[in-house]
Amino acid sequence: MPVSSSSSVRLAEAGRTDGTASAARAATSRRRPRDGRRAERLAPYVLVAPALLIIVVLRLWPLALGVNFSFTGDGDRNGTSVGFDNYSELLQDPLFRTALRNVGLLVLLLPIAVAIPGLLATFIYLRVPGHRVFRSVYFFPAVLSPVIVGAIFNLLLAFDGPLNTVLGGVGIQPVDWLGNPDVAIFAVVGVHIWATFGMALVVFLAGFATLDAALMDAARVDGASLPQTIWHVIIPGLSRTIQFVFVTTMIGMLTSMFGLLYIMTSGGPEGSTYLPEYYIWFQQGHMNRPALASAASTALFVIMLVVGLLQVSLLRRAGRET
């Protein structure tokens, strides 16, 4: 049958409409992958932005203000620029020099603070006799407040306390654990290690979960002893975990011992247990010298940064050599 002119017009319009719709769908389909790729690229920045904002507002900005404040004066010179006078005074202050010397002692004791949770985690992982006891009690000290821990060990380490009673029972002279300037800092650091090793042990156990079991089986088949297995398999396999624990443990020693120091020794005897954080509190809270305290805080930040970078560098070099 012949097709009318009106029908031809309608068919032509329908064809143009379908062509336009197809072109629109094609354009939309091309835009969607581009939009999806753009969203994927932006997603990490959107997710990280809140954390970065918190770090900048609550960490970096106060740090910058503190550094700036450390170049101002106290007392009659409050608010005026004094250059490096506060830092010069720090270096001349015997208490601050004692605090720096104790920081050096902490660095020397750091391998012990890391080795204790590392060995306990190894015992748990290798299921040596007694590993169930370690798994049951290792985290208990970490949940105690430093005030409670300090009060408990004040009783245990007293000159007439239980520890000296036990030592006297085996013929050893009593030790003035908290009253002897040469011993007190070791006693406080030892208590701190006992109270905080649980967190490091958790990190080590998480690291063991990533250790290649085939290497452990090969060492077992080859008849490697426990020290050989630790040195040649476990330490190289956990090198990144060890680096992390070294840095976090050092930061904890420098910034988390105030509670124990305040309860156990109050910086004594004779200022022998001063650490930078206790010195900062003393200058701010007792001497009302916030600018000098800010200078000490800046010095503490620089110390932590330098020590942390040196530790990472040395551990990486040791990991390559092993």
From TrEMBL:
Give a yes or no for keyword Nuclease in this entry. Answer: no
TM helices/strands, residue ranges:
42-61, 103-126, 138-159, 183-211, 244-264, 291-315
Q: List the subcellular locations.
A: Cell membrane
Q: Name one GO cellular component term.
A: plasma membrane
Q: Which residues form the ABC transmembrane type-1 domain?
A: 95-311
Cited PROSITE patterns: ABC_TM1
Per UniProt, the keywords (alphabetical) are: Cell membrane, Membrane, Transmembrane, Transmembrane helix, Transport
The answer to whether UniProt assigns keyword Signal to this entry is no
Bias type Low complexity, positions:
17-27
Provide the residue span(s) of the region labelled Disordered: 1-35
**Main subcellular location of this protein, as a coarse class:** membrane
Q: Which InterPro entries match?
A: ABC_transporter_permease (IPR051393), MetI-like (IPR000515), MetI-like_sf (IPR035906)
- What are its GO biological-process terms? transmembrane transport
Fetch the Pfam families from UniProt: BPD_transp_1
Membrane topology field: Multi-pass membrane protein
Record family assignment: Belongs to the binding-protein-dependent transport system permease family.
PANTHER family documented for this protein: ABC TRANSPORTER PERMEASE PROTEIN, INNER MEMBRANE ABC TRANSPORTER PERMEASE PROTEIN YCJO
The protein, known as: Sugar ABC transporter permease
Source organism per entry reads: Phytohabitans houttuyneae
